[in-house]
User: Fold this.
Amino acid sequence: MKTINTIELRPGMVTAGSIKTRKGQEIIPAGTTLTKQLISRIEFYGIGAVSIDETSMLTEEEVQAALQAAMTQKLANTPKTAEQPSVPETPKNEVAYSQQVKRSKSFQEYSLNSTLVTNTLQKQLEGFVNEGKPMDFDELLRVVKSLITPGQTIIQYFDMLHNLRSIDDSVYSHSLNVAMISRILGKWLKWSGDDLDQLVIAGLLHDIGKMKIPPEVLNKEGKLTDEEFEMIRWHPRAGYDLIKDLNIDSRIKKAALQHHERCDGTGYPEKATVASLDEFSMVIAIADVYDAMTAARKYRAPLCPFQVIREFERDGFHKYKTQFLLTFLQRIATTYQNNRVILNDGRAAKIILLNQNALSEPLVQLNDGSCIDLASSPLYIQSIV
Ligand SMILES: [Fe+2]
Assistant:
């Protein structure tokens, strides 16, 4: 018997015990072979994990065989060109996983609800910036909190955030993501409920200054002129000026001004250092960078969480509040422990031990049982399967 997160359930798995709702009503008896419809039913009732008969699950060898078969078929169906890499790329697996997430009922619900929340946020911010209407922070908090589903795992949540980014890349959806990621980090830091609420508002408002930047500059795809670049770098100050006279927590105002500052003084607009940075600003800075890296860009695919961890490790812990960044990266890495991954040479593996000194380079086990310590190997994790 093995407990499996609902999002990882596959048709063909057999339930090891009776599946019940929170109120104790049985919805699927023990010994049932799961179908897509039954999995949707489990998702519908918000059940986060279920017990599965391990003998009904694919072995590592079977997974490897399936992956190999998929790759062989892909190669057979693709005409060879001079540019084709000799090692098959694996985004196909990631796409398949991403499609599974997108097809799930919980994702569709989240997607719909987050669109509603994003619209509410846009309406309020535009009303405030363009027409001077007061923002209703109670309403904003209420709609954001409606996105938080009890029993949902962080891994499911991050999966949904990543997949949403390819749908909506606006300032408003970015701000909502930053608010939600900041809240998760604030929770990991054991902040109080009131601080978490204020942090959510700080996340929602952190980029409000971008609304003062002409859209043709903000959304420009080509290289920015020096003047346009300066205009973009002005948005923290513009944001602060917009909200500085509001009767709100001062940490929210500071987050708008300081979220691009870095602890070592390399940020902007004031090149402030850690001594003058507010804790909210330092949390928002991490969430902001994380969300930007996991978003798809025209020039690169979204980075998988381990690539993001690697980027943060490369960038240097001195740029961020070390305690906050370590907590954030450790919790994310731990979330994916035991997950299957694809390495950059196309092989499937499983994370079996995290390396505390290099979180992006854990010990992984290949399907033939051999292990690779990524900390002493040029290989790296390319995607989560
Ligand atoms: Fe910003």
